[in-house]
Write a structure and sequence with these properties.
Elements: H1 6-21, H2 26-37, H3 41-51, H4 73-85, H5 90-104
Length: 109
């Protein structure tokens, strides 16, 4: 069986968090999680254990899709240096730059 994506993991953690917040017992919540998410009760208990330590639901990241494009070498080097200096991946740095550009443009485009 394949591993769940970060997005699926966050959704399951949030489901566990809400079940516990609604007052479900661990046994009830594990049964519900196993049935709804088609996971083992053991895995459901792991999600519930982790959810017990959360103070609020976790953010669910939008799945990323790979794209390919070409940029001048100096832009790539500058992007790589910026990403390393700010402890980001190049994808994260580029995503932030695109978001900033689009926000500045007022969403036009």
């Amino acid at each position: 069986m394949s591993r769940s994506t970060l997005s699926v993991r966050a959704q399951r953690l949030n489901a566990a968090f809400h079940l516990l917040a609604d007052g479900c017992s661990l046994n009830e919540a594990a049964g519900f999680m196993a049935e709804q998410h088609r996971i083992s009760r053991r895995q459901a208990y792991r999600y519930l254990q982790e959810a017990q330590h959360l103070s609020s639901p976790v953010a669910v990241a939008e799945p990323a899709i790979p794209i390919t494009f070409k940029v001048p070498a100096d832009v790539a080097l500058t992007l790589r240096a910026y990403a390393q200096a700010n402890d980001l991946t190049m994808g994260e740095a580029l995503t932030r730059a695109v978001h900033a550009l689009l926000a500045k443009a007022g969403g036009r485009g």
